[in-house]
Amino acid sequence: MARFEDYAQAYETVRMERRNGILQITLHTNGGVLQWGEVPHRELPQVFRDIGSDPETKVVILTGTGEMFSGPRATPDRKLSRTASEWDKTYWEGKHLLSNLLDIEVPMISAINGPAWRHSEIPLLSDIVLASDDTAFQDSAHFPNGLVPGDGMHIIYPLLLGLNRGRYFLLTGQTLDAQQAKDLGLVSEVLPRAQLLPRAWELAEQLAQRPRLVLRYSRVLLTQHVKRLLHDLLGYGLALEGMGVAADTPNVGSAGD
Asked: Of the residues 59, 83, 105, 156, which has the maximum number of CB atoms within 10 A of its CB?
């Protein structure tokens, strides 16, 4: 079992505070907007593992810092380049990023504080999803940028939007604003940013009144279908994404060198 005191200060990209069993995790880069890259990709699977191993947490709130939930918006001039062997680390982290998130066996509330340009599937996997009125969603990092959307996007968006709308979203680089996201069922409430975290805490305090095992087993039950889809499809998607990346990455040396 993990203890909050042992992991709360252990990560570069996550600030944590816990009151009365409610844990708020705030994503950031150097105190500002989370800039997606190698460090959060490495840290978040471990963060979620620690949180999921701590029996003292009853509810989790997930939010970001500043004017965006996650950035930067990807552009083709920053195209990913990795060999197949280099991709293995990305493959491992990508699988555990989402599986460890869903292994947090207490209710989760996302308070999306602005545009989620990178890995927006992460906050959308919470049980209750709130968004500021300037939030927007786009999968900027994958198909529009020459990559297969295989790291969970291919599962979560068709699941939440419906098969055809989800595929359209991924293949066209569509941007959804907060109200569109609410109308399409991605989020449940749209609020001014100043009201976002107070509302998340209000809901968390309401949930935390329920018995501990009711909280835990409700989360387990309500995520089971998503976990089954991830089990069946996430590794395959990551492998295909990696093959696409490796195909465009120049070989360095050869077996005979």
From this structure: 59
